Amino acid sequence: MAVHDYLTRTDSDTLYSKPGLDLLLVETELCRAVISLQGAQVLEFAARDRAPLLWLSPTSVFEAGVAIRGGVPLCLPWFGEDLNDPSKPKHGLVRTQYWELVGSKAETDGAVVLEMRFQHAGDELFAASFDCTLKIGLGESLTFDLELCNTADIPADYSWALHSYFAVEDVNAVEVEGLDGGEFLDKTRGFARDRLSGMQTFAGEVDRVFEQAPARQVIQTPSPITAESDNCHTVITWNPGAELAATIHDIREHYRGFVCVEHGNAFADRWQLQPGERAGARLALSR
Ligand SMILES: O=P(O)(O)OC[C@H]1O[C@H](O)[C@H](O)[C@@H](O)[C@@H]1O
């Protein structure tokens, strides 16, 4: 398959009638996907004859430097608030920066792999320079292969997550399998430690960090979603619930349509990389 057979360069005006960002559209026998060059963020993915995997806010803005609400943003090199300096942007730097598409190829099984790259020079927000490659696999499932290299001459801590917004029929009826018995930090209660018994459900606001979490979760909703990871030790479960959602301009009443089950290495699982050291991880999502 030649590149132009499956990849179209487009923009948010053409696809969503909201000018502002350059997008990639991938259409193959196996799937349809939309990817934003800002953030290397997958916004839409549906395998052929399958329900859409991801939720993209109908009220998201598409503006350079502003986080897009939905899909799979990559939060890196810190996750959530920078605890040492809350004035820094939430969820790191890379989700609001333009990434370079450095390569694309079609595999023999028909899957398309896009290779995206972002290089950080080191600045006042994050002193260490780093080089980040994200290979996005678009086939029957959606896969991410992340590789990060600390290119600085100082050691640095990297805390990150692929912040998947999964499309669900009704968040109140969703159950997440694969976290039973896990200890978590409850962000809604000042990071209090607690332990989950049974399935993770979403009655109201949920914001939990599971360290050393199992590699596989199943999101039970009509047409279940499976997430399977390799070297992602942290799972974060999030939905703001009705009350908090009402204060978030690009969520509001739409909170019922998604659940976030995020995979990465944050908090105690963060990567501590020496100068020149690399680390990698993989995540596969399917429905
Ligand atoms: O609104 P954002 O900056 O995209 O963050 C959205 C959410 O991301 C994660 O799930 C965090 O654990 C939440 O605390 C946060 O509210």
Automatic annotation (TrEMBL):
EC number: 5.1.3.15
Alphabetized InterPro entries for the sequence: Aldose_1/G6P_1-epimerase (IPR008183), G6P_1-epimerase (IPR025532), Gal_mutarotase_sf_dom (IPR011013), GH-type_carb-bd (IPR014718)
Keywords for the protein's UniProt record, in alphabetical order: Isomerase
Catalytic activity: alpha-D-glucose 6-phosphate = beta-D-glucose 6-phosphate
Transmembrane segments annotated in the record for this chain: none
Keyword Zinc belongs to the record: no
Keyword set includes Isomerase: yes
Cited Pfam families: Aldose_epim
Enzyme class: isomerase
Family: Belongs to the glucose-6-phosphate 1-epimerase family.
Protein name: Putative glucose-6-phosphate 1-epimerase
